[in-house]
Fold this protein.
Amino acid sequence: MNTNLTRRGILGAFTASTAIACTPKTSESFSSHIGQATGLFTHGVASGDPLSNGVILWTRLTPENPISGSINVIWEMDKDPDFKSLSQSGTFTTNTTRDWTVKIDVSDLDAGETYYYRFRVGDIISPIGLTKTLAHASLESARFAISSCANWQHGYFNAYDHIARQDHFDAFIHLGDYYYEYAADDYLDEAASGTGRLHEPRHEIITLEDYRLRHAQYRTDPGLQAITAKMPMIAIWDDHETSNDSWKEGAENHEDGEGDWEDRRQAALRAYYEWMPIREPRPGRVHSDIFRSYDYGDLLTLLTVETRLTARSEPIIIEDHFADIKAKSSTEDFQKNILRDPSREMFGPTQSDFIIDTLKTSKEEGKAWRLMANQVIMGRLLTPDLSPYVSEEAMENIEKEWAGIRDFIGLSTYNLPVYPDSWDGYPIARENFYARLIKENIHDLLVITGDAHEFWVNDLTSEAGEKVGLELVTTSISSKTMVAYLDGATADYNLLLTQSNPDALYYNALHNGYMDLTLSQTKGHVKMIGVDTVIKTDYEAFTVAEFTIRRAGDTLKATNPKGLNLKQRALFSGLG
């Protein structure tokens, strides 16, 4: 490695078309969309929210006459696939009032055990599912498939198919944007137009029936069905499960003429709890309180948080402040009175207390890892001066979906947040959260994040420079990446943002895919898995990059990078 390279000097050596992405050395070829369920159990089976003594089982019926009446569904669990000596069984009655979904909260199971399960209606038997309870005592390792952002219209869910082909995962963690609420003619990807994949219903989903139909469409995907039949799912929502850029009192994509926001929110939540293998909130909590925790023996505590509907203040729309910032040639007023308004909340006090208490208990019990599943990027990422790197062609392409792009590029020199809808749009809320972590001597939080359609590795540090952990961000399953906007300049943009943000160790917006995370008692390992296409069902899967996560004093450090080119390695090492 050339030790004379610096963070500032790396980009000086190329223009907006010369950076070459690191090409994966090996890949495997696959063909997806094989094995979709049919008949009465068209939407397959699923399990989720595993505990040491229980798990949620789920399916959905597609009856010939879906208008009225009820159907009794027998469910069965066994440690053997022949179901000859049942561990648990029972009957569940479903009907149109719950959209023919079946969800059972099974208890009194053995810890750390694999169970087979199925559903029966008369002589009709569902596909057989496989699930696993959490270990109660000692555990050497756990492995997770981590995904986010699956847009039906942007292409095939090949990354789901690849996850389902693996036999080593203990759970499937979905970080949100499980589906998208848009109409068939909104937020399109021209590259995927030839797939013919259009949203159903064709209009933007608003009512309970709309949300149910959209869930039903996405649950027909054979890759998703294969994953949820093979391992338990742990899911949180982001914004598109309700509406784009949602917050506690509204959403950017909830407009006049679309009815009352609370009615829409409740419709979305009802459909979500009907269609997902997720446990209902305990008594005393509302449906938006999805935050919860899981203990994997003495190995790790997994927290899932809610950053949309419980307490989030309205996201800042940077365009609304362009004129004032440009007129003053300063962001001082914007930073002080708007961005850094101390009333801007993300978690809320109830959830914050739950998170801190859970992390404290985990540390006191000596668990090796504290893992938090989080929706939007937590690391500090500010925009560098982008004007030399965005061509007119790219500008026109982006302008089709974001009218304010030219103003944004012009103001990028002011170091505004890259993603104001992320934690960078709530810097005081983030500082307050970090302060509570530091007070409890928690500096080893490992955060897994979705939403951004990009791979990131970020140090998590306070504004004073005190480190509280590490963040791993997964790209999208199919939702379009930065390539759709910047094309050949995407790799340059990746390097520019990495060099300009000290907390950003690695950034790659070139691929769709998912993360493969293994945690053992002594170290962690993350593979960022990419797929070469989402517009065909024949695809190749490969490792984009991988990192080892080790302890560095009382915090975490990403080490031993693989798959990075020279410039990426120099930035990862923080040279200069």
Q: What stands out?
A: The chain has one domain: 10-31+138-233+287-573. The CA atoms of residues 453 and 481 lie 5 Å apart. Residues 349-364 form the longest helix (16 residues). The first strand starts at residue 28 and ends at 31.
